Hints:
This protein is mainly α. It is built from 9 helices and no strands.
Amino acid sequence: MVSDSKRRIEVAAAGLLARHGYHGFGLKKLSEAAGLPYGSIYHHFPGGKEEIAVAAINGTGVLFGRMIRQAPGDVFGTAATLFDFMAAKLDESDWIVGCPIGTPALDGGSDVESVRAACVSAFDAMTDGFTGILTELGLEPGEARGLATTVVAAYEGATILARVRRSDEPLHTVSAAMARLLRLSLAEAVAVEAHSP
Length: 197
């Protein structure tokens, strides 16, 4: 069972990672954001900043993966919800707060191995969620995985574009394009199955 204080640290860390990336957030800011004494941070995370970042990124991946998997059969609604969530989050934060996985992946993911590995694991959790839905809808596992990877990559790319352009237009445009791609891919799978002997 995770303590309330530890959970508060992870949630605050995810917010700071989404805003500043790995190298841009410090433990003093984290202590303030979590509303906990500085010493409490090291009590729960003796490994310091790196351990906290890994826990926050992994937690975000688990949360996103669970959210995606909890909508079996509704790949369109699930994908649209993901894009809409980020559009609202960026707008509410004046285009400052991005993805707690994608932002540290760009800032710190390549030179801190544990952070990079956590980002990989979190992206995999998202991809696995979409792969499961698409497989249930009739796509072959390899095709489902490829399409799921495309959706996650499109989401992250659209998030970066929206953030730097300070506009939700890239997220809405890419969301609509992903819906068309998903619809086409599923229609092709149904057509192939209908013509199979």
